[in-house]
Amino acid sequence: MRVQVAVTEQLQDYVADVSLREPDVLRELRERTAELPLHLMQISPEEGQFLGVLLKAIGARKAIEVGVFTGYSLIATALALPAGGKVIGLDISEEWATVAREFAGRAGVADRIDLRIGDARESLDALLATEGEAGTYDFFFIDADKENYTAYYEAALTLLRPGGLILVDNVLWHGAVLDETQQDSETTALRAFNARIHHDKRVELSLIPFADGLTFAVKR
């Protein structure tokens, strides 16, 4: 028998009341981002805090994030890293990156962030081919264009050390993965991605129905 509490708006408010410790700079970034047409792309503050707990639990020093948007999760990651830690953020939009850089400076973590603009697949290839970074990262967060999730995942497996953690956001896609009438490219890509890694023996796997669905994959 499966027992799961239905997360109502009231219960979500309670969770925030008793657990959320959102820094002022992240709250201000969230409020700034809420004014944008694509504001729903931003992770929730609860998810940002969860990222920080994960990073500290695994002792992460080097991280990569694919899909930065205005920088909430990137800055949450940087805040959780120790002195000397580094997070590489990959995004396609200089406009959004400008906001991320502003708030990274205000948060005092600009020196921990390497924000690169362009095709993330090319940036990841460069890390492997020209910078010799294979097997050196602790954490890899995927929250970008769904059609390329598999490419990002494969790059993550090469860049991570054994025991490194991949976290993949939006894998339930607001429930659309269950609706066979939904055949758009993003939904079909997520279905294929979820099915692909289900039997991937290179990782330890767990998917939890938190936020919009989070997949955890630990590299063996």
Structure description:
Strands 3-2-1-4-5-7-6 form a seven-stranded mixed beta sheet, sandwiched between helices. It is built from eight helices and seven strands, in the order αααβαβαβαβαβαββ. The protein has 220 residues and is α/β, with parallel strands linked by helices. It is globular, with a radius of gyration of 17 Å. The protein has one domain: Rossmann fold (3-Layer(aba) Sandwich).
Specify the biggest β-sheet.
7 strands, mixed
Q: State the CATH architecture.
A: 3-Layer(aba) Sandwich
Shape: globular
Oligomeric state of the chains? single chain
- Give the class-level CATH name: Alpha Beta
End-to-end distance: 31 Å
Mean pLDDT: 96
> Poorly predicted ranges (pLDDT <50, ≥5 residues)?
none
Order of helices and strands: HHHEHEHEHEHEHEE
CATH superfamily annotation: Vaccinia Virus protein VP39
Q: What percent of residues adopt helix (DSSP H or I)?
A: 40-55%
The count of β-strands is 7
Taken as a percent bin, the fraction of beta residues is 15-25%
Coarse structural class: alpha/beta
Brief synopsis:
This protein is an alpha/beta fold. 42% of the residues lie in helices and 20% in strands.
Which characteristics define this entry?
globular, alpha/beta, 220 residues, 20% strand, seven-stranded mixed β-sheet, Rossmann fold, 8 helices
Structural topology:
Elements: H1 9-19, H2 24-33, H3 45-57, E1 62-66, H4 72-80, E2 86-91, H5 94-107, E3 113-117, H6 120-129, E4 137-142, H7 149-159, E5 160-169, H8 185-198, E6 203-208, E7 214-219
Helix pairs in contact: 3-4, 4-5, 6-7
